[in-house]
C-alpha cells in the first residue's frame, strides 16, 4: 500500500526519502518544517502572523519568509485533507515531533480511517539519545526503511486524545513545550534562560561553544542553535550577558557573563 508520509523537519524529510528509495517505494513525503516546541501557537492555524513574527525575531538575518512558511504549512495540511491516500505520520521522542503528530491528527479529524503512524523507539537509534529524546531526523535511512512494514492505524480513541491535546497546547500558548515522561509540558522562556546563565562563562568564549553546551542541557527539548542564540541575545538586552564581535552570526562573536558596570 502507498502512503503519504508526513515528517517534521528537512533532515527527517531527506532521511525518509532515502529510506523510500532504498525500499524502491514511490510514496510521496510531506515535510512540515516548523519547530512547534518553541514560540507562540495561538494563531498558527489561522493567520500565523504572531508566530511568523516570533521566528523573525529568532532569525532576523535569514532569507526565509516566515509568513510564507506559515501559509505553506496550512496549504500542506489542506492538501492532506483533500487527498484520498492513506497518511503515515512518523514521530520520535521529541516535543516537535509529538506536536506535529497532534497537529496533523487535528487537521485530519474528518478522515480518521486514513491516519496511520510510525512511532520510532529510542532503542532503534544508532547514536546516543540526547537526554531520552530523539527526532526522526536522527535515525538512519536503513533503520527507517525497516519500519515500512510496521505502519499501523491509529485508534479512534487515541486520535481523539491527540486532537484534543493539540487544541489545548494552542489554547495554552506557552513559550516552550517540553517532552517529559511521554507528556507535553508547558514552560516559560526563563526555563531556558536559567540554563544559559548556569552555563555562561565568566571569560570570553565563542558563542557557538556556549550555545552548543546549552542545547544539550535542556531537559525535554531538542533545542536549535537559532533558538538558544536568540535567548542569549535577549539576555544581552537584559544586561545579563555581554557580547563582542558580529552579533549577526553565531560563528563570529563571543559571549560571557556581565561583570557589572557597563557594556562592551
From TrEMBL:
Superkingdom of the source species: Bacteria
Pfam annotation, one family: DUF3658
DUF3658 domain sequence ranges: 151-253
Segments forming domain DUF1835: 4-119
Protein name stated in the entry: Uncharacterized protein DUF1835
Organism: Cupriavidus phytorum
Organism placement in taxonomy: Bacteria, Pseudomonadati, Pseudomonadota, Betaproteobacteria, Burkholderiales
Amino acid at each position: 500500500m502507498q502512503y503519504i508520509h508526513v515528517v517534521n523537519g528537512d533532515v527527517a524529510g531527506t532521511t525518509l526519502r532515502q529510506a523510500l528509495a532504498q525500499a524502491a517505494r514511490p510514496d510521496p513525503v510531506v515535510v512540515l518544517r516548523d519547530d512547534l516546541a518553541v514560540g507562540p501557537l495561538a494563531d498558527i492555524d489561522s493567520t500565523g502572523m504572531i508566530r511568523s513574527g516570533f521566528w523573525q525575531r529568532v532569525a532576523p538575518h535569514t532569507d526565509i519568509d516566515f509568513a510564507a512558511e506559515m501559509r505553506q504549512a496550512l496549504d500542506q495540511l489542506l492538501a492532506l485533507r483533500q487527498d484520498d491516500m492513506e497518511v503515515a505520520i512518523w514521530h520520535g521522542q521529541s516535543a516537535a515531533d509529538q506536536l506535529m503528530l497532534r497537529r496533523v491528527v487535528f487537521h485530519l479529524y474528518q478522515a480518521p480511517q486514513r491516519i496511520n503512524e510510525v512511532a520510532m523507539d529510542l532503542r532503534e537509534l544508532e547514536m546516543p539519545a540526547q537526554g531520552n529524546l530523539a527526532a526522526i531526523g536522527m535515525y538512519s535511512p536503513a533503520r527507517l526503511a525497516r519500519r515500512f512494514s510496521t505502519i499501523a492505524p491509529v485508534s479512534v480513541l487515541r486520535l481523539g486524545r491527540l486532537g484534543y491535546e493539540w487544541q489545548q497546547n494552542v489554547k495554552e500558548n506557552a513559550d516552550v513545550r517540553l517532552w517529559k515522561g511521554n507528556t507535553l509540558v508547558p514552560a516559560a522562556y526563563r526555563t531556558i534562560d536559567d540554563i544559559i546563565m548556569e552555563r555562561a562563562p565568566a571569560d570570553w568564549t565563542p558563542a557557538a561553544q556556549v550555545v552548543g553546551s546549552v542545547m544539550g542541557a535542556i531537559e525535554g527539548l531538542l533545542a536549535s542553535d537559532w533558538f538558544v542564540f536568540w535567548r542569549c541575545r535577549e539576555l544581552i538586552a537584559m544586561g545579563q550577558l555581554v557580547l563582542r564581535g558580529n552579533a549577526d552570526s553565531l560563528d563570529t562573536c563571543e559571549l560571557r557573563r556581565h561583570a557589572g558596570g557597563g557594556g562592551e
